[in-house]
Amino acid sequence: MTIICTACIVYVQVNNAGILGAKIDFDVMASFIKAPNADVQEQATAAVNLSEIMSQTYESAEECVQTNYYGAKRVVEFLLPLLQLSDSPRIVNVTTSAGKLENINNEWAKGLLIDDKRLTEERLDEVLHQFLKDTKEGSLETKGWPPHTSAYVVSKAALNSYTRLLAKRFPNFCINSVCPGFVKTDITNNTGILSAAEGASYFVRLALLPKGGPSGVFFRQQEATLY
Questions:
Q1: Which residue in 45, 94, 101, 130 has the fewest CB atoms around it within 10 Å?
Q2: 221 - beta bridge partners?
Q3: Structural domains of the chain in order of their starting residue, each with its CATH number
Q4: 152 in active site
């Protein structure tokens, strides 16, 4: 989703396109997602073999990376000339806490993504290329990639990293990424906890930050947190 406000001087872009890149049995997941409390949820989750209710192919992983990372990036690059006309341009990339680097055990990839001095768009491409290569070869677990919905996790980690790069590239922009939480949308098969309106409120808050607000930050709803 891209929002351009031409009735005022502020131009806002919100990227909210995303796919899971895997098939999930949401009927099984719903049994522990909607458990009455954390203890029951933990017991239900432990009783489920996630590999039996989640499946990811190379084709679905590639589509996920192309949509979640490269799709968002293309929209940003296409709209940059328009955003630069504003005296207070904003970009909000919608990502996920699942894309935090703590969820990636591939030390080579994590080392590149966490190092602001070494991180470049070309290195992001390298990470994604290697991930897809390992996916095709069936070596995700041995190479330290996430075992479940790995394409979703890696593509969103890449989008978080791209957000940081953009913030450095355009210091006069306000550019952030945000995880809205578990929202009732198509991507969750409407099994989420929050309504779509509640989830969208976190995007809007970042889009309406005052001039000079934080940039290059990842938010978990309203709270700034580590990438």
A1: 45
A2: none
A3: 12-21+56-225 (3.40.50.720), 25-54 (no CATH)
A4: yes
**What is the C-alpha separation between 148 and 79, in angstroms, rounded?**
33
Beta strands 217-220 and 223-225 are antiparallel
Give 34-55 pLDDT, tens digit per residue.
544 444 334 444 444 455 556 7
Neighbours of 182 (CB within 10 A): 15
Give me the sign of the Cα torsion angle 65, 125, 181, 200: negative
CB 112 within 8 A of CB 127: yes
Taking the alpha carbons of 45, 182, 22, 134 in that order, is the dihedral positive or negative? Answer: negative
pLDDT (tens digit per residue) in 88-116: 899 999 998 888 999 999 999 999 999 99
Q: SS3 letters for 178-222?
A: EECCCECCHHHCCCCCECHHHHHHHHHHHHCCCCCCCCCEEEECC
Task: State the helix-helix crossing angle for 72-83 and 150-169, rounded to 10 degrees.
Answer: 20
Segment holding 31, helix H or strand E: helix 26-33
| Cβ neighbours, 10 Å, residue 1 | 12
- 3-state SS, residue 73: helix
Report whether 219 contacts 178 (CB < 8 A). yes
Which has the closest alpha carbon to 214: 76, 162, 205, 199?
205
Neighbours of 122 (CB within 10 A): 7
